[in-house]
Amino acid sequence: MHHNEDFIDLLKVLIRQPSVVGAEHSFFRVLQRELEERGARVSWYNGLLVAQGSKPNSAMFSAHIDRHGLICTGPNEFQYAAFVAGNRSDLLGNSVSEKLMMKIVDRFQATPVMAYEPWSGAYRGSGVINRAYVCEYRNNLIFEVEGLEHLVAGTPVAFTDRLTVRDGLLSGQLDNVLTAAHLVHLFSLGFQGTAFFTAQEEAGSSWRYLLEWFRRFGGPTNRLVVVDTSPYPDRSSADAQSVVLRRRDANAEFNPETITMLEQFCHSSDIPCSFKDSYIEEQNRLAAKEGRELQSLGSTEMGRIIAASGGFVQGATLQVPTTGYHTMEESCSLKASSDFSRLLGKVAGLEEGNLEKGGNWG
User: Fold this and answer.
1) Rg over CA atoms, the chain
2) For residue 284, what are the domain limits?
3) What would the pLDDT profile of 5-28 be if each residue is shown by its tens digit?
């Protein structure tokens, strides 16, 4: 499976740009440049960048652009940015569970990092994570970084990242720069609808910025499609499908008409798909028999905005299956990424000729 070279080049550029949760401004600047070069009209709002073509209501997609990283909170002291941005690092009982902290504590040992100025993206130095521990006094996860002792509190620190293309896989910190890059590339193929790029999804806040826009400018909709990555435990389970759909998540049920539309496009385009909620329910049936812990259905931007808006904004999710979720080695197959792009084109109403012109998809 050959992937479009223009898309790969774009993804390489975007994945090198830092976009730590709560400090996404500089990445929005990069996105604005790439989108405007492709003919989109770009508007900035708090926590939200909106790119539109000449037919903004023809199709609507949303991708979050924040990635995990650290934030300096004191002299040679750094905390997990998603916890800080989500106000889950306080002393009032709202801190992160010990189980989640222990899951993360060894995940980024010896990982190279880079500090940057959040508005301009200016480089502020590089280092390596040499220790992570749970502070017993604050019940919080603390990182120590060699080489960034000079930073002042409030400086974001991104995991140093680059795209790897090897053995039919795209690898890097893909969540969620991968599908954001797909939306930017969609404008290269002639997309004239609307693409939203949201901040702070990893902190659970992105839906607020999106809902604010719809209440002010867009009115109600049932056709919003939220794109993202979707984790699987191993390569074989990820490769069982090219795209992942959902009927619901832990927050809400999704719009059945939009789900049916996506499923029909998959079938008509010979794109293998599956439903993540059905997969989790089956895994939980097996886990219950074996006495293992059950999985949550997960929480998505789509589910959050449906629940919070009382159905004012509805739609469905469209996801790319990956392994190594929330690590520096998150991977998806080139085939899945290519099929995902073809499906986006179908939903966007692009002509087959434009899709073929955009690259070799077969």
Assistant:
1) 20
2) 5-67+163-349
3) 999 999 999 999 999 999 999 999
